[in-house]
Amino acid sequence: MAAITIHVQVPSRGWLHSVLAELAELAPPSNWSISRVPFTLRVVKPEAYTPQIISIGPLHHGEKNLQSMEFHKLHYMFSLLRRNPNAFDTLDACGMAIERLDRQVRACYSESIKFTTHELARILLVDGCFILELFLRFSLKNLRLKDDPVFNTSWIISTLQRDLALLENQIPFFVLQWLFDVAVMKTDIAQEVSNLPELALAFFKSILYRNQESVQSISRSQFFHLLGLIHDSYLPPQPAHIQDRHAMSTQPFVYSASSLREVGIHFKRDTTRSQFDLLFERGVLKIPPLLIHESTDSIFRNLIAFEQIFHGSSQFVTSYFIFMAYLVSTDSDTELLEHKGIIENHMGGWENASFLFNDMSKQVVLGDFHLAQLCRELNQYNRTAWDKYETTLKRVYFRTPWTVIALIASCALLLLVLVGAVVTVLSYYRP
């Protein structure tokens, strides 16, 4: 996309000259997919969106607390490139190609990137090569070095999995794909790897819940970045209620899990469906299992943030957590779903899970509520059940004045018996 060109005779007024200079450098608006997390979401839990040990891309590059990984990035890039017959030529080709992609790269970000074309290309080259080498060493253990602290330190891999899934820590996927095609697929290890999406998902596998069908379908799709890949891997291949996503401008009320159980609704762990594809049929609510661990909060907050800033994204993750916030409102609700195997809580304590769902939906704007039809079905079932109870109560106990009198008399007699029992116990223990 070409920059906007303005031909005008610049007046002597300094402020106008400055504005026109800025307009001359202004690029056309684009459908960007990498952005700072909106303030309304970040203020709820800032640490969920902030990298802990590594910066990827330009948004956090140069921050002092992330400098220790820069040394390892260069080592990983060197290991990746030297597998090629001529490492120098490969490095040069990759750098020049990324520079040629400069305008497309910048269009992926919601804000102006402060780095020059050369500086931005270096950031993307080093970070992209590091990511690819990390994925390769993770999947192919024979590539790991004996003295590699990344794999020899227990907590680093899990932290990298978290940091590489942050919205603000992304580089365009087409950059990764280009580097993969040049620096990996033209080497001897090409036959040991299938494609980049599957290689990436293998790295995140331990913190995600996906069935094999979603992996196969995702490998044939196109995405914006690694977080977008994770997002799309969660989407149902054929969502049951996608046709109803525009049915309501606001989400309908849903009763809690404990309340739904009281009216006869059963809960079932469903491993045949995608994570956010829930189904209600014949009085049974089928929900795929959700793994809750130390990275769950950060990953899903960033997936929700991605859905908030990128309007081309389906809001399945947002819809799911808003629905679960209704369904899991107390610790007893969480305990019920844990007992059914729907929630696998590796954090310890039911209070963590119940807080997770309710806190996740704060300050969220929902456009497409994909579970609207499911909510209506549950609410209708709940109302129908209570109508049946009310009808039974009227038919059995309030059929005639005499049955009403008999019910009142029975209740009064029961109350007198209870009062008598309490008086007897108190008199027995009275000194």
Set out the fold topology.
Elements lengths: L13 H11 L14 H4 L25 H14 L5 H14 L1 H5 L10 H23 L9 H4 L1 H10 L9 H11 L12 H9 L7 H7 L7 H9 L22 H6 L3 E4 L9 E3 L2 E4 L2 E3 L3 H14 L6 H12 L3 H9 L3 E3 L4 H11 L11 H26 L3 H29 L2
Parallel strand pairs: 1-3, 4-5
Antiparallel strand pairs: 2-3
Helix pairs in contact: 3-6, 4-6, 6-9, 6-10, 11-12, 15-17, 16-17
Textual characterization of the structure:
Keywords: Membrane, Transmembrane, Transmembrane helix. The protein is mostly helical. The protein folds into 4 domains: 1-30, no CATH class; 38-234, no CATH class; 242-381, no CATH class; 400-431. It has helices spanning 14-24, 39-42, 68-81, 87-100, 102-106, 117-139, 149-152, 154-163, 173-183, 196-204, 212-218, 226-234, 257-262, 296-309, 316-327, 331-339, 350-360, 372-397, 401-429, and strands spanning 266-269, 279-281, 284-287, 290-292, 343-345. Helix 16 (331-339) packs across helix 17 (350-360). The N and C termini lie far apart (93 Å).
Strand content: under 5%
Distance between the termini: 93 Å
Instruction: Enumerate the spans where pLDDT stays under 50 for 5 or more consecutive residues.
Output: 239-249
H/E series, N to C? HHHHHHHHHHHHHEEEEHHHEHHH
Can you count the helices?
Answer: 19
Q: Give the C-alpha Rg.
A: 29 Å
Rounded mean pLDDT is: 82
The secondary-structure class comes to mainly alpha
Biggest sheet descriptor: 3 strands, mixed
**Which sequence of strands runs across the widest sheet?**
1-3-2
How many domain regions? Answer: 4
Strand segment count: 5
Helix content: 40-55%
How would the global form be characterised?
elongated
Transmembrane segments: 402-429
Pfam families: DUF247
InterPro entries: DUF247_pln
Keywords: Membrane, Transmembrane, Transmembrane helix
